[in-house]
Amino acid sequence: MIATDLDGTLLRSDDTISARTRAALDAAAGRGAAHIVVTGRAVPCTKRILADLDYRGLAVCAQGSQVYDAGAGKLLTSVTLDRRVGRQALDLLEKEIGTVAVAASCDGLDGQVLAGPGYRVHDGPLPYVPFEDRETIWQQPLNKLYIQHDQLDDDGLAKAARTAVGDLVGVVMAGEGIVELLPLGLSKAKGLALAARRLKVRAAETIAFGDMPNDLPMFAWAGHGVAMANAHEELLAVADEVTAANDEDGIALVLERLLSSSSQERPLRG
Question: Which of 67, 62, 88, 92 is nearest to 77 (CA)?
Fold first, then answer.
């Protein structure tokens, strides 16, 4: 099984997938390997990319909280954040570091992103809904919360959040300006393990590609972890291998090597 993160990994900086990487994934599929997308993006923000790929398999979304069947357009599993715990975590965190800007990812196939005052929203295909009163975010089921701080950088904010509320929620840094609070114990590895069980694939048969600290659990679970050259230093430190950057066909380079080194008569699995 080939597990790929999206942003900074499978996707290039222009949010597209190169023809060379598509060809390498198709070739691997032809030899018996399953490709599974494993992303921090929730399903509503992932569907367009999967459609562009003509991807019909399972996708692990929202940092592992959602397993989505792209072919059927169905959400197979969904883990939501306890809103009382989320509220408590924010209150405790702000007592330690001051006010944070907050956004929230709503659960479901068409869940919205709600963004509060001061939250710097990244450009993307999914519109966000602004709110002024934080009470708004507790009115519906949530996958996760996003937090930003006007003085702490991403790594500093993630570290402060783990120290202050790491016993209440999971904390991940998933990209520039993206620090997230998740249900405790949730990770990409949890979602990937669920999807792998459905596909009858073992961890030892899995090669994982990623670029950010939220990919650390996935690397720990998979048989082989490949970091992109543009990856965060925490991921580079534990990777089994480092490939070229996402803009330089890093995934394709690894898959082409594996395909050329394995026997033409034998599938990649087994």
Answer: 67
Q: What angle do CA 7, 11, 17 make, to 5 degrees?
A: 165
A 10 A CB-CB count for 68 gives 28
Whether 255 contacts 27, CB under 8 Å: yes
Tokens 């080939």: give the residue: 2
pLDDT score for 266: 46
Task: Report the predicted TM-score, pTM, of the whole model to 2 decimal places.
Answer: 0.90
Closest-CA residue to 146 (of 110, 188, 174, 107) = 174
The tokens for 189 are 């590895």
Burial of residue 213 (CB within 10 Å: 0-12, 13-18, 19+) is buried
CA–chain centroid gap for 173, Å, is 10
pLDDT of residue 221: 98
* Token pair 């300006």: residue: 177
Q: Report the C-alpha gap between 104 and 109 in whole angstroms.
A: 15
pLDDT over 90 for what percent of the chain? 88
CA proximity to 7, closest of 63, 82, 83 = 63
pLDDT of residue 53: 80
Q: Burial of 43 by CB count in 10 Å (0-12 exposed, 13-18 middle, 19+ buried)?
A: buried
CA-to-CA distance for 152 and 140, rounded, in angstroms? 29
> Residue 122, exposed/middle/buried by CB under 10 A (0-12, 13-18, 19+)?
middle
Cβ distance 239 to 10 under 8 Å?
Answer: no
Alpha helices in 1-81 (DSSP H): 19-30, 43-53
Over 50: is that where the pLDDT of 267 sits? Answer: no
Q: Does the CA dihedral 111-2-5-143 come out positive or negative? A: positive
Tens digit of each residue's pLDDT (9 = 90 or more) over 84-121: 999 999 999 999 999 999 999 999 999 999 999 999 98
